[in-house]
Amino acid sequence: MEVLGNYLGLDLDFFKAVSRFDRAALSRLSKSNLTVGAKACYLSHYRIFESIVKNGYENALILEDDVDMELNITDIMTEVHHNLPNDWDMLYLGHCNEWDSNYFKTNLTVHVLHTTGHPQCTHAYAVSAKGAKKLIEKLNIDNPKDHIDIALPALIMAKEIISYSIHPYIVVQFKGVNDLSDVSPDGGIGETYPLMNSTLRFLGYDPNKPVL
User: Fold this and answer.
1) Burial level of 29, CB count in 10 A (0-12/13-18/19+)?
2) Contact (CB, 8 A) for 147 and 91
């Protein structure tokens, strides 16, 4: 992540995730039947929403630490920002899969906006200040029933959160054969999706080779 930020000139803040071994933090979700990994992930994202509100940010881009981005992501996001409706709560820059989304007419040239349908994964999405306040209010932090990447789409599908998605995605998970999930019960790595111009591959990184 630091390599990406440095090369692309992105000013990133690193937010320490909740560890699945942090019993004190996870006691907040003691009523939930989720696995400890899923609880830790849920609480990590929820704490970021709280931080957005506490610090008075207008919006924030939330990235998990295993991502890759388009080389020209700054140019893409500048164009997206000029076309993004003012009512947005969330904006998905990446997802593992999405169905039931609908094209939203804009003046974008290469990438397009959709009204978000049912996205999977939480590795790259933006939240507005208004959206963060809604998420804090609507998410069940005391007793979550579903993983965070299921709870968020549920709010979107219920039209309680206004969300848009960029297609094709401009941020993906950069996963190799040894990158097993500690959130999913089966520990699987899922699929890796291609970018038009991968920054990490441009810099010579290969997810299936160890970093020396």
Assistant:
1) buried
2) no
> Tokens for 144?
């979550």
* φ and ψ of 199, to 5 deg: -70, -45
Do the beta carbons of residue 114 and residue 167 sit within 8 Å? yes
pLDDT in tens, 54-66: 999 999 999 998 8
**For the chain, domain boundaries:** 2-202
| Backbone phi and psi for residue 202, each to the nearest 5 degrees, phi listed first | -60, -35
φ and ψ at residue 79, rounded to 5 degrees: -70, -40
Q: Which of 187, 140, 188, 183 is nearest to 35 (CA)?
A: 183
What is the reported pTM?
A: 0.91
Domain 2-202 top-level CATH class: alpha beta
